[in-house]
Design brief:
The complex is a heterodimer of chains A (140) and B (798). Chain A is mostly helical and 140 residues long. Chain A is built from 5 helices and 2 strands. In chain A, 68% of the residues lie in helices and 9% in strands. Chain A has a two-stranded antiparallel ribbon with strand order 1-2. In chain A, strand 1 and strand 2 (107-112) form a beta hairpin. Chain A is globular and about 65 Å long. Chain B is mainly alpha-helical and 798 residues long. In chain B, strands 1-2 form a two-stranded antiparallel sheet. Classes of the chains: A mainly alpha (140), B mainly alpha (798). Chain B: It is a multi-pass membrane protein.
Chain lengths: 140, 798
Amino acid sequence: MKTNDLILQTTTKVVLFIIILFSFHIFFAGHYTPGGGFVGGLLTSGAIILLMLAFDMKTVSLILPVNYIYMAATGLLFAGGTAAGALLFNVPLLTHAFGHVDLPILGDTALHTATIFDLGVFLVVVGVTMTIIQTIGEDE
Amino acid sequence: MSLLHLAILSPFLLAIFIPILYKLFRKVHTGWFVLPLPILLFSYFLSFISITSTHQTITESVPWIPALGVDFIAKVDGLGLLFALLITGIGSLVVLYSIYYLAKDKEKLNTFYVYLLLFMGAMLGVVLSDNLIVLYTFWEFTSFSSFLLIGFWYDREKSRYGAQKSMLITVFGGLSMLGGIILLYIMTGSFNISEIIDQAAAISTSPLFIPALVCILLGAFTKSAQFPFHIWLPDAMEAPTPVSAYLHSATMVKAGIYLVARMTPVFASEGLWLWLVAGFGIVTLFWGSFNAVKQTDLKAILAFSTVSQLGMIMSLLGLGAAALHFDDIDNSFFGAATAAAVFHLFNHATFKGSLFMVVGIVDHETGTRDIRKLGGLMNFMPITFTLAIIGTFSMAGLPPFNGFLSKEMFFTGMIRVTELNIFNFETWGMLFPVIAWIASVFTFIYSMILVFKTFTGKYQPEKLEKKPHEAPMGMLISPIVLASLVIIIGFFPNILSNSIISPALESILPNNDIDVHISFWHGFKPELFMTIGVIALGILLFLTLPKWRKVYNIFPKKLTFNRLYDSGLEMIQHASNKLTKTYMNGSIRSYLVYIFAFFIFILATTIAVKNAFTFDTSNISSIGFYEVLLALAVVIGSISILFVKSRMTAIILLGAVGYTVSLFYVLFRAPDLALTQLVIETISVALFLLCFYHLPKNRNEERNRFKLTNAIISIGVGAIVTVIALSAHSNKVFDSIAEYYVENTYTEAAGKNMVNVILVDFRGFDTLFEITVLTIAALGIFAMIKLRMGGKKKNENK
């Protein structure tokens, strides 16, 4: 019998963006409200998993041609780079800098190097969860 | 670095070049490159005689580890010089002998001479070091090089057995000696023997005195093959004969004697030293000579003979120590006992060295060392026979050889023991001369066996591998030199007394003026009659040997020390194997039981000993309705996991517990934790389900079997952790540092979510490595699943 996933797939197309937006929100708002790179990353990978459930893994890898191991490595590079970057300014490791910058389009924006660090965490978490799921899922 | 240090270290230096010389000059016997060194050293050390004979010493110091008080202090005094001359003198003769003994193309000469040189250098270091740690270093070097030399023919099982045995026994003694040295250091604060001797009076009152004494003596007794540690020496006879002649008769086995002599001024003020040294010496003397008679292998006879002679020297040293112990008696006499020890030490090195070489010649020319196969060699090997006669007669203590003189002095010493009047010595002291006399009779018998069974009697050509003929001249030079020494010293003993023996005595017994005079003729004293008795009874017993040989069968073979050693070694192996097998059973469950039991034990004991349990309810918050509800849910969930039948239920229950925990986080106002816990719990439950879906199908799902130990241990762990948590909570000593974070989260780090700010800013270092851990886990899973090379191979085999 051939199953039809039309409802699931259609719902996914709508819900996916809501989840992604929510996870980005949680990630960016992490410094002020509950959330941050870890939960944000987990939610993003949750969205991708939903995609995998609704479609199949090959389709998903066509849509998102990402090597998740590289992603985790990039995350580590971001986090480690932020940590080591402090040394260039002759301050101890992992000293963050922040301040208000007047950007051309966005106007007065608060920027914080901790966000780069958190982005590293985010990437690592997405990379790691997706590597695990994908590896186990593809295994016969 | 003085010339003296260079002299001590020169054998090591030459040893480096031996393999190169061996490879470069294949046509020349490597021994010729070695030979000049000991001769050079011998003549160098001869030049010291003029200094030591006027009772002066030479001390040269080179710092080695100054921070620990360890300096390489080379000191030449009478005793050290005597040994140095023996080592280099007999060393040269042995090297010369070995050139003819070891074939150039059959043996690995490079390793042989490297080992031999290592040994020579180590031995020189032992006798010329004033620092005990340096002495110990060289001491172990002699053990190692001796091990290598005994196992020189390593393809023979007996060689390996002998090498291992000697290694185990001598290293055991060496380590206990190190313990003694450290105890001495604790008592005196110095490793230098001369400084320790200066504090001898203080040492004797220390509580560490007896342990130090016993430890040092253990080292000396094992090295010098004293009873009951003599068992390694007969097995060491598997070494090439030059090695036996050098190490196991003239030098290494005398290292223990040297140590006892060197330590006499330190320890001899107490009677214990005297009785231990003299007692073990006399027992060794008897046991060695008694056992030598029953041996059938020429080298075995010589080995037991060495044991016995070493015992004799040791007992004389013990008696000599009485000179330091008793003030009221005639000191000159006990000094004479020490003089006898030194004199015999020298004599033994000469005749035993030559006898080993003679036996080596017999072995080399006939192919056997078994006295049952040998006989009637006198006509084929007249020179060797003459040498054997000189050596054995000297060993038996017959005039006019040097052995006679030292044996007379030995008897004198033994008779005078009875005059010591402590420890009820009038009665027990009588044993000394009696045992000594009986042992001398046995010495006479085996000496006669050695020479007459080999060289006279019936010639049995059918049993010999080769047709015997006289040895080449080069092989004979060394024993001839030694045998002529035996005779020269026999006739002119006093050439040694002022130059060698008297300075050596000065080092053993300081502050005792002893006039050494060895007279050939004592007059009609008891010693003379004792010697006559030894000869008469010895001849009688030798002639009737076949009739009383059965005596040796009285002792069952199981009751030997070798048997004890072998079975002991086996038992230790067996027992430790068994012990390891009982607790290392390979089951993780047992190891967890050990770990948790130890955890409970150590914590419970600490709490009990420190009386640490407190329960303080003053600063706990009130408990609300939701907390009770959630706690009930967690408890019910956890307990049901233990009792459910299906695994699926257990996983779901585990998930329920996890979600309840996240509700706890909500309740206790930890939104970040709650969020994370929720998502992580979902993922882990999913992974669990994945795992259990893949379990083998035929596996019966059965309930966990109940095990009492597991129950007790898990309840114990739970109880102990609860107790600790309660006590820790009741004992809060300092305020939390959380205030700082609350105040500075926005001002310092520009954030309002304190948890996140702590994670990425205040303590971002931890986070950095936690994400590293995650990455490693992912890579691990990836590698584990993708790389299954072992599994593939197995499938192919199927």
